[in-house]
Each structure stands twice: as structure tokens, then as C-alpha cells.
Amino acid sequence: MSIEQEKKFLQEAEAKGLYSCLAAYTKLSGPGWLQSAITLGGGSLASSLFLGVLAGYSLLWLQPIAIILGIIMLSAISHVTLSTGQSPFVSINSEINPVLGWGWAIATIMANIVWCLPQFTLGTAAVTQNLIPALNNTGGKVLVVLTLLIVAGIVIWAYDRGNRGVKIFDLILKIMVGLVVISFFGVVVKMGTAGNLAWGEIARGFIPNLSLLNQPDEIYTSFLKETGDFRIFWEDKIVNMQRDVMIAAAATAVGINMTFFMPFVLLNRKWGREHRGLAKFDLWTALLIPYVVATSCVVIAAGSQFNGKPESAYQDYENRILHANLEKGYNEFISERLELEFGKDQFANLAPVQKEEKFLAVPESDKQLAAMLVKRDAFNLAASLESLMENKTFSHYIFGIGVVGMALSTIIILMTINGHAICEILGKPHKGPTFLTGAYMAGIGVLGPFVWSDAAFWLAVPTSILGFTLIPVAYLSFFLLINSKKVLGRERPKGIARLIWNCGLLLSLTIMGTAAFYVAWNKSWGDIPFGRIALIGFGVLLLIGHFALQNKKLVKKVEAMDMKLQQMKKKLEPETK
Hints:
Elements: H1 3-16, H2 18-28, H3 31-39, H4 42-55, H5 62-84, H6 88-96, H7 98-131, H8 138-160, H9 163-193, H10 199-204, H11 221-224, H12 231-252, H13 256-268, H14 276-306, E1 314-316, E2 321-322, H15 327-342, H16 344-348, H17 352-361, H18 364-373, H19 378-384, H20 392-426, H21 432-441, H22 448-482, H23 485-488, H24 495-521, H25 530-576
Antiparallel strand pairs: 1-2
Helix pairs in contact: 1-2, 2-14, 3-9, 3-13, 3-14, 3-20, 4-12, 4-14, 5-12, 5-13, 5-14, 5-22, 5-24, 6-7, 6-22, 7-8, 7-20, 7-22, 8-9, 8-20, 8-21, 9-14, 9-20, 12-24, 13-20, 15-18, 19-20, 20-21, 22-24, 22-25, 24-25
């Protein structure tokens, strides 16, 4: 179907009524599925797991609300893009602030390249630990990462081929998102049929409750009573962790690269004003539903297995043998608790044997809290579900498939976004060698399984800070663009529609902006308060960019006035003679 046939098909469907319109929208959907593919990645998996670990079912409401706020903003981005038919990057640079426009693009490229690394790591771990353990060696990992890269490269090459390739691209991503959702949904269904879920508590978990921002979840009450003088220490630790994961999960539901990707995937399809309803429908179905189902299922599974269960941190609870990947986090909690009791310097100066004695002497209640709070990963969850499944390998395979689907779909989208971003900053068409070069540039993520643990500190912290810093500013830019008569002209929303847009956008901007600002402000790079430095520095650059743009506009006005005066002067000269 050509773009003209597509427009005619939409117009005819909309004229026939609601059901025909929805059927047409469903048939032509695409961009929303692509947004699902990027947001359902390792970050969403980790956030969902930790939400379940810390608060059980109590925070099931958080991610649905966060994604709804993000969809409101993505809908605004779609409206502006399809109304103007041009790149928002150009509009922001010429009308809002060039520092924001370039910062938006640069942060997107950094995020794409850096976050590809852990996605390859996650996908490789899922294959070698859950699906094909025989490949759990260096040679096997190399084979797996190269396979992931080749598959991603072929899919992106198909996307670059045009309409038919785009349809194949959409279909592959829909299948991958579907696999992710079905995998995690299948786990919850299996747990539910086995009678292991408290459905009443789960239902109550979808009711917003902000109390966990300043008080521990109820599950910790009985444990906290036993900690004596150290109760305040553990309460503060729990509340701070709850607050941090809540705010981080909200801030990252829609990342900076998702806001950059949306306009170019629309323009690449040659969509126009006729597609505005389709674009919004696509976001509210293909992004909202898969994201909410997948993340909620992970929270439910993690909450049922880990929340309030210190024994889940141990391979052997009686002999206190921790799971290997949890030992470091557990020891950090106990060390902080002992530093409070004996003094940080005094505890640091103890001999290893003395430290071990202190560790063993820590009261049971403190050990239980440390065991409950330590972060788990998808493989801990898969292992914990073995006892609930008739087939012991079911949980490993189902989680392996879901995690590989998450990782591969995110790799494909991150690489695709990078291709668009490189084309945009170079001013090149979003296709061909430039697009593919930019996309394959992010394929450096194949090094992830071999370097990520060492590189994470140097790459993840500054990249996440820059991304978090720009999220509220990007949101503000699109709020200003959708209200700009100069940019949208007659397409600017009017009357009640404009009021609804502004209320929704202001709500999204306030909540997501506050969350992103909090995360960035409190991020540090070792002992350096890098987040605060970045926020203040970027604020100064924004001011410089604002005045530079205003000065440029003023110069253009003066030049335009001078040109008019010259034209008037030429017209008057013959009359004077």
C-alpha cells in the first residue's frame, strides 16, 4: 500500500465510524510497537525486579502511571511532527534553544551506544545461563554476541530498504515484544494456577500510594522491631532505596532516546496530518499495553518470591551460604551497619579476621534485613521459580526467551535510533550508507559481555546523568512547540483541545521533570557530585543558547527591516527624480 493509498484508506475508515477507524489503525500500527521494543529492555527488567523485591505488590501502580505520562509527551511529539512535516531538531534549534537541540541529539547518541553494551551482556547471559548452558564459556559468548549483532544488522538493513523492509521490521519487532509479554505473562499465569499469588493484594497494588516515599513497606515492620538501636539506620536505608527506585523507574519509563526516535520513525514512513489519530492510537495501545503487562508481571513474580523473604538470598539458608551474585551487596549493607556501630575509620582499620568476627556477630535481624534488600537479577528469579513449576526447566527457558527478546529488540531499536541521530546532526537523508553507518556504530555493544562490568562506572553514570538532565528540558521544548503559533500555525490546538493538551503536558512535565531532576541531582561519579555539576553547567549553557538565539533573531529582524527600507528607497528614487 503506497502512502497515498494509505491516506485514502484512513480517510475512508474514519468516515465509516469508530469500529472501521479502530480496525484501520490496528492494521497500520507500527511506531508504538517500536517504542515498546526499546522501553522493554534491561532497564525496565531491573527496575521491575527491584520494585518487587523492595515493596512487593505495593508499587504496581507506579510504572503504568509513568508510561502514561510519557505517552502524553510522545503524543505531543507526534502531533508537532505530523503537523509540520519537519524535524523537531530543526524547530527546537531555530525556535527554542540550539543548546537543547544539540544536547538532545548528543545525549541520544551517547545513550544508544552506551546502553547497547548491557543489552548484549543481558542477552548473552540469558542464552548461556538459561537456554544453552553449554555456551557458557568465552568461545560460546563470542558466538552468541555475534549472532545477536548479525540478526540486529539484518533487521536494520531491511528497515533501510523502504516500505517493504519497514513492514518486515515492524513485524519482527511486534513478534519480539509479543514474546517478551507472553513469556512473563506465562510465568504469572503458571504461578496463579498453582495458588501462589494473593490476587487481592495484587489488585490493591494498582491503587496509587505515595506513603512509600517516606516510610518502609509494612513487610519490614516485624524485622525492624528486632533491630533495637539500629532501627533508624535500617528505616532510613529502606525508605531511601524505595524512593530512589520509585523515582528512577518513573524517570526512565520514557528515555531521552525514545523522544528523539518518535519523530523520525514517523517522518521515515512519510506520515502526515492524516496519520495524527493513528500515531496517538498506536502509542496508547502498542506501547501502553505491552509495557504495563510485562513490567507488572515481573513485579508480581519478584514480589511473590523475594519481598520479605530473607531466605531467598541464600543457596543454603541454614548454613548462611549466599547466592554468589548477591554476596557483594549483602556485605556492603552489613559493613555500613558495623561502621555505624564501631565508627567508619575504626572498622576500616580492623584486620580481615577481626572483620569476619564482627560480621558473624551481627544480630540475626540485621542479617535478615540485609538479605531482603539486596538486589536480585532475572536469573535469581528464574531459579527461585523452579520449586513452583512441575517442569524444573520451564522457568529457566521461559525467562531466557523473555530476556533474550527484551535484549535483542532493544539492541535493534537503539541501533536504529543511532542511525537517525547521526543522519540528523550531519544533515543527511535518513537512509542509505550514512544511516547504516550510524546504526552499526552502536554495534560496538558486542563488547558488553567482556567489558561492561569494568566500563559501567565510566560510561553509565555520565550518560544517565546527561539523559536525565535533558528529559525535563526536552519535555519543556515540546510543550512550547505545541503552543507555538509560529511553528504550528493553523495546526496549533484550539479551545478545549488546547486546554486538554496543556493540562496533560504540564502534569507530565511536572512529575517526570521532578523525577528526572532528582535522579540527576543525586548522581555522583565516585566522590564527584557529577549530577549537580552537569545540571548547573547545562543550565548556564541553556542561558547562553537562549540569549544567542534571541540575538540571532534580532539580527535577522534588523536585516529584514534594512532590506525593506532599501526596497522602499529604490521605489521612491524615480519619484524624487
